[in-house]
Every structure is written in C-alpha cells, then in structure tokens.
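Predict the holo structure. Ligand: deoxycytidine diphosphate.
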Amino acid sequence: MEKKHKQVVMRVSNQASREVDGVGDDADRAGNKHSTQGNNGSEKKVIVVFVLGGPGSGKGTQCANIVKNFGFTHLSAGDLLRAEISSGSENGWKGKEAINKIPKIEFASIVFFSTMIQNMIKEGKIVPSEVTVKLLQRAMKESGNNKFLIDGFPRNEENRAAFEEVTKIVPEFVLFFDCPEEEMERRLLSRNQGRVDDNVETIRKRFKVFIESSIPVIEHYGSKGKVHKVNAARPVEEVFETVKEIFSPYGANVYLNSFQHLNSLVRYPHGHYLDLRDDRSFRVELRMSNESMTMDHAVVFINPTILWPVSALIPQTQNISLAAAASVLCPNFTNRCLQTPPLFVLF
Ligand SMILES: Nc1ncnc2c1ncn2[C@@H]1O[C@H](COP(=O)(O)OP(=O)(O)O)[C@@H](O)[C@H]1O
Ligand SMILES: Nc1ccn([C@H]2C[C@H](O)[C@@H](COP(=O)(O)OP(=O)(O)O)O2)c(=O)n1
C-alpha cells in the first residue's frame, strides 16, 4: 500500500444539493438555497440545525454525539463567546453600533469587547447579535463543512432575526431539549467546568432569560412545524436514541482512518443490505493526505432502517465510531487504492 494512502477520509454529502457559494455572502439568496463550496467545487446545500434548551439541558453533550455519528460541525454560541473572552481581543467588535446595544454596562474610556461579553455572561444576559452572528458566520466559513449544529442560538428574537438577515439561512429544524429546571440546576452545579455563570444566582437568571427570551423563538419555529422536542430529563444514552431517529435522514459521514480498519470491515458482507427503495444517494468525497480528490461516480446508498442493527454487529475500534451502515459502489476508489474492494464502509 502506498504511504500517501494511509490517511483517508471519506465524507458523504447529499448529492441532491445545489451549489451557490460561501456562507452568508450573498444577500440575494434566501432560505435553503444556501450552500457552500466543496473542495472540488461540488455543490453542497448548507444545513443548519438550531439546538435549543435551557442551560444544562444537555445540548453540548448531545451535540458531541451528533457530530460523531452524523458528521455535523458543532458550533456552540456560548463556546465561541467564551473563546472570544479568553482571546481578550477587540476583534473589530468595538464598533459603536454594537456597544450601543449593550444595556446597563458602564463604559470607561476604553473597555475591551471581551470584557463586555464576559460581564454579560456573568449576569446571565444575552450578548448582542452583532457579536454572536459574526462569530458563528466566521466559524461556519472556517469549518469547510456544510452541516451545522448551532447550539444555544438563537437565544432570542434579536438573535433569530439577525442570523436570518445576515446569512439568509433558514434552519432545517430546531432540536429542543426539554428538561425541568430542578434537573438542569443539578446538572449545572456539578458541571465543574469553572464557568463564571454556573453558580446558583446566575443559573436562576439564565432560567428566567430562557423562559422570557428563548421560549418565544422555539414557539416561532414551532408554528412553522420545525421543532423536534426531545425529553432531555432522561439518561444521556436514552436521549440520544431519540436524537438518532431525528437525524437519521441527514446521512452519515463515512470516515476511514486507515486501510487496516477498512480491511477489517470488509470481512462483513453488509453490502447485501443495499436498499434501492431508499433513493437518497450520496456523493463521496475522498481526501488523501494533502491531496484532495473527488469520486464523482462513487455513490453510497444508505438505508437508515438498518443503520443501528448493522452497526451493532461490527466491533468498535479506537478509531472507528459506528454510526451508520453504507454500501459503497465505488469502482475507481477500489481500483486505485485498494487491493480488496470494500463492500461496506462505516464511520
Ligand atoms: N441526560 C443527562 N443526564 C445527566 N446529566 C447530563 C445529561 N446530559 C448532560 N448532562 C451533564 O449535565 C451537564 C450539562 O450538560 P451540557 O451538555 O453542558 O448542557 P448545555 O450545553 O445544555 O448547557 C454536564 O455536566 C453534562 O455532563
Ligand atoms: N446566542 C447566545 C448564546 C450564549 N450567550 C451567552 C449567554 C449565556 O448565558 C452564555 C452561556 O451559554 P451556553 O449556551 O454556553 O450555556 P448554557 O446553555 O447556558 O449552559 O453565553 C449569548 O449571549 N448568546
């Protein structure tokens, strides 16, 4: 096997998507026409899922699982804001416009923007959208992905309107983790991440802000039939069972970290599970080391109904997390790179 083929990443994306250009650049576009440029110039519809729920409802925890299993990029608005605080940078945010929108904060002659964000978070308040939307937009562009979980956003109507206005992206759906306050409070008090806002006083303020500001956003999307409400008061694994069902139509990433793993997978002839009644087909992008190439003709069929039972048959290894079953028809890939053709690939 050639050395350069050691690191292989296959990414599966929806073939039916259309290309326009980068995230949030074109004000003429609307709704789900939004897309981003793939490495090969291929078309990729941008899929955004807003993940909402009270503080401590388990958004971050479940997002980590969704990332592993469905190849989304997780963007936590709170994490981006905290990163902004620790960078201590002014980052061009010190514009008058944004500052004027921050209520009840006294400014000395110079106040770093990061300090303002920190003060607001300490108070359980919502940072102005100018800041958060810019951070999200930048992170989306930098990710190179087209599937995003935007966690903890939009927190209020202002967030929602600003995001839609700036990016022209309409979310695919809203994942709402519903959890009683007592349970959320218990979780936050034992989260132990050293967060300035995980103390009883700020937690209670955050609950109030959630009810007053974030519930209306959830109701807004609810009225459009876009909300998946999940009972988050259950153990992590049980919550994820429900989440998996919701995400199963959104495909899985196919990652092969090395041929060693692929060879161990081809022992399992799950290609037989190919179900052509499911007409969703996916384009496979193949990246090798620094090279990037796309197998336009490579098609993966995924049958969501067999994902979980089949994945249970495959032993888990350190580098492969089992998320989805896929049958691969990929003649060029096998001819060029493999001695043994893969019947079946897992991520
Ligand atoms: N279903 C659950 N049951 C019990 N504890 C959970 C559950 N989900 C998350 N946690 C824990 O609760 C805390 C808050 O979860 P986190 O995912 O950070 O919430 P959020 O992002 O909504 O604020 C973390 O310490 C996490 O490990
Ligand atoms: N869209 C957002 C998201 C978070 N923030 C601020 C205010 C929130 O209380 C903190 C923490 O948010 P984060 O989503 O990380 O955490 P919790 O869900 O509250 O546990 O960040 C914001 O101002 N605007």
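The mean pLDDT is 67. DSSP finds twelve helices and 13 strands in the chain.
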